[in-house]
Specification:
- The complex is a heterodimer of chains A (236) and B (247).
- Chain A has 236 residues and is an all-alpha fold.
- Chain A has one domain: MetI-like (MetI-like fold).
- Helix content of chain A is 74%, strand content 0%.
- Chain A is elongated.
- Chain B has one domain: MetI-like (MetI-like fold).
- Classes of the chains: A mainly alpha (236), B mainly alpha (247).
- At the A-B interface, helix 3, helix 4, helix 5, helix 7 and helix 8 of A face helix 1, helix 3, helix 4, helix 7 and helix 8 of B.
């Protein structure tokens, strides 16, 4: 996309050269799309693993908190305590145990996601009306079938709302992982700040927001598909 | 594990706390930044939210402002602010390097929880109570100051508390863009492979975050007019609106 002078030789410096250093620069997007896509894929990978790990830990914790009211305060309080630690301080505190690796970032972000997820799972499960539970038991539902066949589907809207919050904030927080060099798009932002490379900063930042909005949209669609009874009233 | 031992050693060495690059100086600097940003955000956010909440207008703002704040990475906003030509990386008095950019970013990120909570707090005052106040002949402003505000207070303070914890976290991240505060020790430690230093500073940041959380929780409890009647366990956690944003 370089401008050509009349003699056919490119004279205009590219819009991301040090002399011009524009914020918005399509040349940058074209020339460096490999940087962007590899950072994006690392970002997506970190976010996905954190959320999976967060869900895997949060679910049993939520069940435990529901079963044993005494533990509930401990579980909610403990996760809220972790949530208070700033991300830039949580990663260093994990490093003695996990080293400088992607694990550090994934575990740290999973701990944050966990706080949101446990709360929403607990709220969703306790929101299931007692009559519904009683009817299911009366129909001969066992404990497992009651949980997965009745309670979980009914709790899904609340849980999914929590998952949306967790997803969006995990995408944003992944950038801080650049402290241990696993920050996905955050690595580009840091590089951009250090070299005063504006096009890189803006492109990575915008991609980050786009990724968050896109994943949020995916969850909304997923929820729509998974809870057909919430939007099938017209046919009934 | 050696890193942990060395970090402890770093913390217990008095020389690391004193001086211009010492932890005390940076700690005070970061606290000053956080409190200034919080005060500015309160001045703007509280005024706007309480007023709009009283009038019952612009409810969509209260919802969306939080969602937007959550999706925009703090780090990205800081990076953009620092790289803008205008607020620049120049020193700003006691706020240090990149002080102005940090202050603006902190204020922006403190606004959503303050705004959303305060707005919701005033809106959720029961209509019956407001009608009773009007029936007693209170004017609009009397209603606001004597009825709506006291009832809204716990939620308003809880918004300020969320904002404070968030601002502290954001102030730490400022170090990633050469900002001031304790975060600089963390980034220095990690970029120059002096991990114990980074871990020690992270520990101090985390401890201060706890202290801020506990202190503001106490304030929150003190301003609740109904706390004696509704002191059931768990009621506090469920009453919290989902305005929390982690940074």
């Amino acid at each position: 996309m370089t401008l050509l002078a009349e003699d056919g030789i490119s004279v205009e410096p590219s819009c991301y050269s040090r002399l011009v250093n524009k914020w918005y620069c399509t040349d940058y997007l074209q020339d460096r799309h490999h940087d962007l896509s590899s950072a994006l894929s690392q970002h997506l990978q970190i976010t996905a693993w954190s959320l999976v790990l967060g869900i895997l830990i949060a679910f049993p914790l939520a069940l435990l908190a529901r079963r044993l009211p005494r533990l509930q305060g401990l579980i909610l309080g403990g996760s809220t305590m972790i949530y208070t630690i700033p991300s830039l301080a949580l990663f260093p505190l994990l490093v003695p145990f996990t080293g400088i690796s992607m694990k550090t970032v994934v575990i740290g972000l999973a701990l944050y996601a966990l706080t949101i997820l446990v709360r929403s799972m607990l709220a969703g499960l306790t929101g299931v009306p007692a009559e519904v539970r009683e009817s299911a038991t009366g129909l001969g539902y066992g404990r497992m079938r009651l949980l997965f066949g009745v309670e979980l589907p009914l709790a899904l809207p609340v849980i999914m709302a929590g998952l949306r919050v967790a997803t969006v904030s995990t995408v944003a927080l992944t950038t801080v992982g650049t402290l241990v060099s696993y920050g996905g798009l955050g690595n580009l932002i840091r590089e951009g700040v250090q070299n005063n490379f504006k096009a890189e900063i803006l492109a990575a930042s915008v991609l980050c927001v786009v990724l968050a909005v896109a994943l949020d949209g995916v969850i909304v669609v997923l929820q729509w598909v998974m809870t057909p009874w919430t939007h099938a009233r017209r046919t009934a | 594990m050696r890193n942990l031992r060395d970090a402890w050693h770093y913390l217990t060495t008095g020389a690391n706390w004193g001086g211009d690059e010492g932890m005390w100086h940076l700690l005070v600097q970061q606290l000053l930044l956080s409190v200034s940003a919080l005060l500015i955000a309160m001045a703007i956010g509280l005024t706007l939210a309480l007023w709009l909440g009283h009038l019952g207008r612009a409810g969509f703002l209260a919802v969306n402002v939080t969602n937007v704040g959550r999706a925009v990475p703090t780090f990205a906003l800081l990076a953009i602010l620092v790289s803008l030509d205008h607020p620049g990386t120049a020193e700003l008095g006691p706020y240090g390097r990149a002080g102005l950019a940090t202050l603006i970013a902190l204020t922006l990120f403190a606004l959503p929880p303050i705004f959303t909570n305060s707005y919701v707090a005033v809106r959720e005052v029961p209509a019956a109570v407001k009608e009773a106040a009007a029936g007693m002949g209170m004017t609009g402003s009397q209603q606001f100051w004597r009825v709506e505000l006291p009832l809204a207070m716990p939620l308003v303070v809880s918004g300020i508390r969320l904002a404070l914890v968030q601002v502290w976290a954001t102030a730490t991240i400022a170090a990633l863009v050469a900002g001031p505060g304790l975060g600089t020790l963390i980034t220095q430690g990690f970029y120059r492979t002096d991990y114990p230093k980074g871990i020690a500073a992270a520990f101090v940041v985390a401890v201060v975050a706890f202290l801020l959380e506990v202190a503001s929780a106490l304030v929150e409890r003190a301003v609740d007019p109904n706390r004696k009647e509704t002191a059931t366990p768990g009621s506090r956690t469920s009453a919290r609106p989902a305005a929390e944003v982690r940074t």
